[in-house]
Write a structure and sequence with these properties.
Strand order of the largest sheet: 1-3-4-11-6-9-12
CATH topology: Jelly Rolls
CATH architecture: Sandwich
Distance between the termini: 36 Å
Oligomer: single chain
Mean pLDDT: 96
Low-confidence stretches: none
Strand content: 35-45%
Shape: globular
Helix content: under 10%
Largest sheet: 7 strands, mixed
CATH superfamily: Jelly Rolls
Number of helices: 2
CATH class: Mainly Beta
Structural class: mainly beta
Length: 276
């Protein structure tokens, strides 16, 4: 398990492009036939992936967790951005189609990932935070999600937000998770921008054509930087950073948060004309 230490604003201000990409961009996350996990020091988050092929993949614990099994003191959320597959939790199988979400509660001992067809493997994005209580493992499909329509063609940000794990949906200790899809012709997400010092966040960009890219804006509102992001890459967003983006064409992204509270609209908005 790779460890990614937290970066403060003062250090951020002195970073060049290569350093920003090294500390905030998670590239090469989805490897066929493998599980990857990154321990992000901020809020003790674990960001990961699983891409099973012909054989299932088992989620193991790591020395860094000092736990007998991965979810001994943690909760885990997963959204499938690949082909059909499934996750087995303590012997119970949960079939997962593309964009289905599974919440796995604290205390779940054995977790394995499978693909229905290794030629079109499932690609499970994983997000985990420490948990102080146990909530049941629950599977949700897109029709189960709380869907919110936002934006407009006029501002090039017409999008659908699908909330899965949140205070009025699947219960969790601190994990909040879902995904956003932009409409054809729309390219802006999360604009006007905001921060939320109560929660850190991770963005996983997907459904990005290979010839396209997303310009992810980050940093304090008065001193922004950008990262060029491609499909299957994630951005680590500290509590002091905005997290917004503009693509060369439409795309989708998974958002996952953890921290002090779970209120989706608890944010500190920044007016567009105040951004620098």
């Amino acid at each position: 398990m790779q460890i990614q230490h937290s970066i403060g604003i003062a250090e951020y201000q002195r970073m060049n492009t290569a350093e920003l990409r090294e500390k905030f961009l998670v590239a090469n996350l989805f490897e066929a036939g493998a599980i990857h996990a990154i321990y992000w020091e901020t809020d003790r988050a674990v960001v990961g992936s699983a891409v099973p092929l012909a054989s299932p993949l088992k989620l193991e614990t790591a020395t860094e967790l000092a736990a007998e099994y991965f979810c001994e003191r943690r909760e885990l959320g997963s959204i499938n951005i690949g082909g059909p597959g499934g996750i087995k939790v303590d012997g119970e199988d949960y079939p997962m189609n593309p964009l289905d979400c599974l919440y796995i509660g604290r205390g779940s001992r054995t977790i394995t990932f499978r693909s229905a067809n290794p030629e079109n493997p499932a690609k499970f994005f994983l997000m985990s935070y420490p948990a102080h209580a146990t909530y049941p493992t629950i599977l949700a499909t897109q029709k189960d999600a709380n869907q919110i329509q936002m934006g407009s063609p006029k501002t090039a940000n017409q999008r659908t937000i699908c909330q899965y794990i949140h205070e009025n949906g699947i219960r969790s200790c601190q994990l909040v998770m879902g995904f956003t899809s932009l409409a054809e012709g729309s390219v802006w997400n999360t604009m006007p921008a905001h921060t939320h010092s109560r929660r850190s966040e991770v963005y996983l960009y997907f459904d990005v054509p290979t010839h396209a890219a997303v310009v992810h804006l980050m940093g304090p509102g008065d001193e922004t930087r950008h990262l060029l992001v491609h499909g299957g890459e994630a951005v680590l967003s500290p509590v002091w950073s905005i997290h917004s983006g503009c693509g060369t064409e439409r795309y989708s992204f998974i958002w996952a948060m953890g921290g002090e509270n779970q209120r989706f609209d608890d944010m500190d908005a920044i007016l567009i004309n105040k951004l620098k």
